[in-house]
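Protocol step 4 of 6: record predicted structures for both targets in the notebook before any analysis. Target 1:
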Amino acid sequence: MKSICKILAFFVFLNMLHGCSFLKLKKELKVMKSAISLEGTITCNESNNKPIIIALYTMRSNEIKVYDYQVHLEPRQFKFTAEPDNYYLAAFLDLNNDLLFQSNEPASFYGEPTLLITQPGQSLKNLNIEIIAPNPQAVKLYESSEISLGNFIRNPGTIIPINDEQFSKDIGSLGTWEPLDFIKKRIWRIIFYRTL
């Protein structure tokens, strides 16, 4: 009888663990349903195979915080999915491939820049940006603040050993049960498995 009680207690405990994971997942799925979509096109007359950086950012008390960014190798359409907030969009042509804006690099904003006020579930389209010659307003904005684009893999095709930390059980669990945290931490990658 004691062994049956222990087995039952064990299964109840396991059920509770999964229940907590499902509650967190349910909360993250609710946040994902309220996500907004921002879409547009970047145009640039002089891209010359240089990266075009487009950043979605917030500004509060003159402090810029980059929410997300994309790197494009040619003028094209872009789409951001984000949490509801008030955003700006900016883009620049990265002439020296360093992911940092310099005053001689062509840049522009959506609008003058225009504040994008969003509501849960909203989709904003036609947010087009034309990158022009070095823009004095962009220079002033970028130089007045430290803008970090975070980690960006510059070496596609790098061979990663299977015992690398990004293949750990904790990272796998984060991707399964806490997908928003997984995405926000920029852990996700496209990885190809190669046999020797």
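Target 2:
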Amino acid sequence: MKIRNGFVSNSSSSSFTCAVCGDEQSGMDLCLSECEMFECTNGHTFHEECVKADLNSPKVQKAYMLDQLKAAIVSATKELEKTNNSHHEYYKKRLEESTKQLKNLEAGEVDDDELDDMCDDWEFRYNAPEGVCPICTMEKFDDSDIRRYVFKRYEIDTDALKVEIKEKYPTYREFQLSLKD
């Protein structure tokens, strides 16, 4: 058995990299809001300032909540249709709550503060819609996506390319120097 002396922590380190500008934020128990970042439904992480849209605007938040509530209604309805669902009451309640919130939102009966609270409850920051993501809207491109496209488009065999690079450059340093502009 190990006995630890001194400081022991259950904290974990987190880091986020903006897919648009490349800025990296890291720290102990760091969350996206502390970095002023969002993550879209496709997993792209980006700074608020790297987005053209105001992510905190009621228009963006309302569109997000409409999508989320409609998806929740579809999901809860499917679960309720299952005959052996042990969580029937949970899904029934979720369906009722989501339907009520959707009707209120569509009727314009939700003020900006309530809308902001709804977005927090539905984790908007970790599930931003594709329509506000600079990568998903093709305003910016991720380098790894471009590399994958080029390799596929020009049918480049990565194994053959690795052999070619090894033959042409005896050291990694020489290889890196050849890549500079």
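Step 5 preliminary note on target 2. The helical segments are 32-35, 58-81, 88-106, 112-121, 143-153, 158-168, 172-179. Residues 58-81 form the longest helix (24 residues).
Proceed to step 6 after PI sign-off.
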